[in-house]
Amino acid sequence: MIVVEDLHKHFGGFHAVDGASLSFDEGAITGLIGPNGAGKTTLFNVIAGVHKPTSGRVTMGGEDITGLPPHDLFHKGVLRTFQIAHEFHSMSCRENLMMVPGGQSGERLWNTWFGRRRIADEERALRAKADEVLEFLTIEHLAEQKAGQISGGQKKLLELGRTMMVDARIVFLDEVGAGVNRTLLNVIGDAILRLNEERGYTFVVIEHDMDFIARLCDPVICMAEGRVLATGTLDQIKANEQVVEAYLGTGLKNRDAVSA
């Protein structure tokens, strides 16, 4: 679905992504792991249009999408979430979801004068869609709650809900488990699996929680120092000497520590 070829992203003399080549298959939940500073988030940012690459190429379904801005990628169904949720904190959870779809009639001044019925019809449809999403994510009880007042895990669920308000083709989840308690992380995992199995969503997941990766992801890609070290099942990744070296700086003698 998405193919990354010899991608580089430099910040001055620092090579955050240094010749990465990899692919994300349609319909898969791909895990992206690696030590801190491996270039994982920078890779996401380049693919999602937040940063332009220094060099290299990104294609989706054979179409060159290298360097396209986020709003263009959004309309192509490429969405991402962030390590720190970016909610509209003074708006309700329902309103946060209703804000997502673009091209709403109420955004045009002319329609606020002469298209009020159309605006009202759209708002009713968006409200119904938002309530359906909240129910799917089992947070319908938070519909009227201000988004800035809910927990960190609930904000991660709300961010996932935003991707459900449009026709997402591939969703990049950046440390969805960061700061989330185990119960809510299981709820998030359940939602991701259901979206994948029932609605055909493709996901790429950056996460340090190996239990979460093991439950959701196949294949798994490991990065270090801006490069791809290995691709395979999680068991294959754990058995890879380069991966063990990248995480621990030691050899085979400490492989069991990674597997634990």
From TrEMBL:
Keyword ATP-binding: yes
Single GO molecular function: ATP hydrolysis activity
CDD domains noted in UniProt: ABC_Mj1267_LivG_branched
Ranges where the ABC transporter domain occurs: 2-250
PROSITE patterns tied to this protein: ABC_TRANSPORTER_1, ABC_TRANSPORTER_2
TM helices/strands, residue ranges: none
Keywords assigned by UniProt, alphabetized: ATP-binding, Nucleotide-binding, Transport
One GO location term (cellular component): plasma membrane
Pfam family, one: ABC_tran
Cited InterPro entries: AAA+_ATPase, ABC_AA/LPS_Transport, ABC_transporter-like_ATP-bd, ABC_transporter-like_CS, BCA_ABC_TP_C, P-loop_NTPase
Protein name: ABC transporter ATP-binding protein
Highest classification ranks of the organism: Bacteria, Pseudomonadati, Pseudomonadota, Alphaproteobacteria, Rhodobacterales
